[in-house]
Design brief:
Helix content: 40-55%
CATH superfamily of the largest domain: Response regulator
Structural class: alpha/beta
Order of helices and strands: EHEHEHEHEHEEEEHHHEE
Strand order of the largest sheet: 2-1-3-4-5
Distance between the termini: 41 Å
Length: about 230
C-alpha cells in the first residue's frame, strides 16, 4: 500500500484529504505543522508528499527544498494563494504539481494517482537495459541509466525534468504546446497548468544550455510551444 504524508495545519482539510485518499487505498499520515512534517519526511519512507504552503514552524517551500536534496518522490504543493510567483517558486524548488484551494477531493485523488503512476513508470524504465543513448551536439541523454551529460559533465536533473527532456528529445523537431506537454509528461488535464511546463523548461535550460538566454536544444516557437532541436 502506498504511503502518503499530508502536511497541513488546517485539521478539517487534512482529514478530508486523508479520508478520500484512504478510500482510494492509500495509507495516510498527517503532520499538523511544518517542523513535524519535515522530520517525518526525512526520517520515514513515503511514496508521495502533499504539502500545504503556509505552515507554522517551517513552510512548505522549505520542506520541499530540504526533501529534494535527498529524495525524488512526487511532491504536490497545496495553497489558497493564487499568485503565479508562488506557483513558480514551488515548482522551481522541485515540486511536481501545485494545486490551488479550493479543489475537489476527487481531483486531488486523481492527481495523486497520476503522479505515483508516472513515478513508477519512470523507475521501471530506469531499470531497463540497452536503451539507445540520445546524442545532440555536446548533450547526451542516457534513458537506461537516467543520466544526462553536457560536454562530458554529468547534469543533475529531477525526475520530472528528465522525463520532460527525454520526451522532447525522443520527438525532435515536433512542436508541442504547453498543454500537450503537460498531458504527455505529467499525465493530467493541463488546463490552467501551463506555468508548470514553463518553469520546468526554464530549469532545464539553466542546466543543459550553454547560454540559457539563447537556447539551442529546447527552442520556443512563439504562439505554439516548444520543440527539441535534434
Amino acid at each position: 500500500m502506498k504511503q502518503i504524508l499530508i502536511v497541513e495545519d488546517d485539521k478539517s482539510i487534512a482529514e478530508l484529504e486523508r479520508d478520500y485518499l484512504e478510500a482510494a487505498d492509500f495509507e495516510v499520515t498527517i503532520a499538523g505543522d511544518g517542523r513535524q512534517g519535515l522530520e517525518l519526511a526525512q526520517s520515514e519512507e513515503y511514496d508521495l508528499l502533499l504539502l500545504d504552503v503556509m505552515l507554522p514552524g517551517v513552510d512548505g517551500f522549505q520542506i520541499c527544498r530540504e526533501v529534494r536534496k535527498t529524495r525524488e518522490i512526487p511532491i504536490l504543493m497545496v495553497s489558497a494563494r493564487r499568485e503565479d510567483i508562488d506557483k513558480i517558486r514551488g515548482l522551481g524548488l522541485g515540486a511536481d504539481d501545485y494545486i490551488i484551494k479550493p479543489f475537489s477531493p476527487s481531483e486531488l485523488t486523481a492527481r495523486v494517482k497520476a503522479h505515483l503512476s508516472r513515478y513508477e513508470r519512470l523507475l521501471a524504465n530506469s531499470g531497463k537495459q540497452s536503451l539507445k543513448s540520445i546524442q545532440c551536439g555536446d548533450l547526451e541523454i542516457q534513458p537506461d541509466t537516467h543520466r544526462v551529460f553536457q560536454a562530458g559533465k554529468e547534469i543533475s536533473l529531477t525526475n520530472r525534468e528528465f522525463e520532460l527532456l527525454l520526451f522532447l528529445s525522443e520527438n525532435p523537431g515536433i512542436v508541442f504546446s504547453k498543454d500537450r506537454l503537460f498531458e504527455r509528461v505529467w499525465g493530467l488535464d493541463a488546463a490552467g497548468d501551463t506555468a508548470t511546463v514553463m518553469v520546468h523548461v526554464n530549469r532545464l535550460r539553466e542546466k543543459i544550455e550553454p547560454e540559457p538566454s539563447k537556447p539551442i536544444y529546447i527552442e520556443t516557437v512563439w504562439g505554439a510551444g516548444y520543440r527539441f532541436h535534434g
